[in-house]
């Protein structure tokens, strides 16, 4: 699979947070339909937790909670 073909629309800020495409894959490296796109804006907090509606940061935050 070619990641450059991913149709997701991440923001520029999202690409900074999850380079190079602004996508948070979590544990699902082989399952593109489960990837989350970061839609953060520059004014988002460093640890966004998805409060802006960003699924990538929400998923990332949730995953961090389950890490022992
Ligand atoms: Zn985000
Ligand atoms: Zn955000």
Automatic annotation (TrEMBL):
It comes from the Bacteria. This is Uncharacterized protein. It comes from Candidatus Methylocalor cossyra. The lineage of its organism: Bacteria, Pseudomonadati, Pseudomonadota, Gammaproteobacteria, Methylococcales.
């Amino acid at each position: 699979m070619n990641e450059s073909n991913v149709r997701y629309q991440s923001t520029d800020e999202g690409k900074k947070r999850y380079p190079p495409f602004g996508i948070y894959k979590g544990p699902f490296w082989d399952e593109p339909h489960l990837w989350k796109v970061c839609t953060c804006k520059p004014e988002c907090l460093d640890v966004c937790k998805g409060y802006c509606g960003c699924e990538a940061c929400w998923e990332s935050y949730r995953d961090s909670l389950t890490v022992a």
